[in-house]
Amino acid sequence: LGLNNISSKVRKNIRETLGMNQEQRKQQKKESELNSATNESQPSTIFHAPTTSKDPPPAAIATDPSDEPSMWAISFQQLLDVKDESMKMFSNNYESKTMRDVNRDIIIPVCKETGKSYALTKNPKGLKTEVFVSHSWDEPFGEFVDSITDAFRTKYDKPNVWICAFGLLQGSNDDIQAQLEMPLAQSPFVRALKSADSYLVVRNS
User: Fold this and answer.
1) Pairwise CA distance, residues 83 & 157, whole Å
2) Do 79 and 148 meet the contact criterion of CB atoms below 8 Å apart?
3) Across 153-160, average pLDDT
């Protein structure tokens, strides 16, 4: 029996039901992707942050992104762009280069030129933190990026990531210290972590 042989009212109900089923399937797919990324064996671990009554409401977020660490994220694609840039810059030595090398030769020059962190240079209006990333600065940078990519390989919409090298204004030790001279609870790390949807611990060589 085709839709053309059914009353307009019944056709409408059928279309609405089909639409609801499609939305349910989309939601189930998203949940399945999340479970796969969390449960499968991988070189990194994702922790999902619980929502608490202490979390500030959206209205409490500062309008100036430079004042709100939760807005100091970079997009997944921007992280991949840095990987591409570092591969071209370091060429045959790329595999041995760490975050310290990338910071010195790619991130710090951007910070000095703009007077802003890499994240706010690329995203002047800020970018909401979805995943807070914890890692070692002495790991190979390529492995670091590949581990993050692997952690979200089944996720269609890649998250914005908060990585301290990109989030903080890089430069001298004095530049770094000036951004951390406050009680721990008010530090950029704690404020960004509290706002994140999940927390990724990158484990590699």
Assistant:
1) 19
2) yes
3) 95
Q: What confidence category does residue 201 fall into, taking pLDDT thresholds of 50, 70 and 90?
A: very high
* DSSP 8-state code for residue 125: T
Task: Give the whole-angstrom CA distance, residue 177 versus residue 13.
Answer: 62
Coil, strand or helix: which one is 158?
coil
At 94-142, the pLDDT tens digits run 999 999 999 999 999 999 999 999 999 999 999 999 999 999 999 999 9
E strands in the chain: 44-48, 131-134, 161-162, 198-202
**Pair of tokens at residue 160:** 């914005």
CB atoms within 10 A of CB 142: 19
- Helical (H) or strand (E) element with 113: helix 108-114
| Token pair in block for residue 137 | 């600065």
- The number of angstroms, rounded, from the C-alpha of 61 to the middle of its chain's C-alpha atoms is 18
The length of the chain, given as a count of residues: 205
Contact 139, 179 (CB under 8 A): no
Angle between helix axes 76-90 and 141-151 (nearest 10 degrees) is: 150
How many degrees, rounded to 5, is the angle at CA 18 between CA 15 and CA 19? Answer: 85
Beta strands across the sheet bearing 131-134: 44-48, 198-202, 131-134, 161-162
Residue keyed to tokens 């390529």: 142
As a whole number of Å, the end-to-end CA separation of the chain is 62
